[in-house]
Amino acid sequence: MKDIAIAVPDGAASLARAGEVLGAAGVGLEGGGMWSGVAHYLVDDSDAAAEALHRAGFEGVRVRETVVVPLDADVPVELGRMTHRLAAAGVELEVQYSDHDNRKVFVVDDPEAARAALR
After folding, report:
1. What span, in angstroms and rounded, lies between the C-alpha atoms of 24 and 54?
2. pLDDT per residue as tens, the chain (119 positions)
3. 86 neighbors 27 (Cβ within 8 angstroms)
4. Residue environment code for 62-80, b if the CB has 16+ CB neighbours within 10 A, otherwise e
5. Edge-to-edge strand ranges of the sheet holding 2-7
6. Four-way CATH pick for 2-64: 3.30.365.10, 3.30.565.10, 3.30.2130.10, 1.10.3720.10
7. Alpha-carbon distance 46 to 29, whole Å?
8. What is the rounded CA–CA span in Å between residue 89 and residue 86?
9. Which of 42, 106, 45 has its CA nearest to residue 71?
């Protein structure tokens, strides 16, 4: 699974168009959201997603490796515990969100170091 970042400068209108393009390409979104004009989604087929978005005229599409770990959503300190471990390992956190299967998704500068820190 990879994170795909999509510039959505027109907010809901851009996001609606991206959703239509990805849906028509058969790409499902497994979690994510939109922040400050950029949407991030966890996708299984990042190549198909990026290709469809590029063909539709989306610029600045970025595909990144993710670190996906189980999330105990009933434990209030889980996000703090995870991010403290990442910080202690010197990992730069760029994006975080949850997927549809109670997992936390991280986009970081060093995925291997993040995986080791979160074990």
Report:
1. 14
2. 999 999 999 999 999 999 999 999 999 999 999 999 999 999 999 999 999 999 999 998 999 999 999 998 788 899 999 999 999 999 999 999 999 999 999 999 999 999 999 99
3. no
4. eebebbbeebeeeeeeeee
5. 32-35, 38-43, 2-7, 62-65
6. 3.30.2130.10
7. 10
8. 5
9. 106
Q: Which two tokens stand for residue 112?
A: 């291997």
- Cβ neighbours around 105 below 10 Å, total: 22
**Sheet containing strand 67-70, strands side by side:** 67-70, 103-108, 93-98
* Contact between 32 and 41 (Cβ < 8 Å): yes
Give me the residue label for tokens 């979690």: 31
Which H helix or E strand runs over 104? Answer: strand 103-108
Domain ranges for the chain, please list them. Answer: 2-64, 67-118
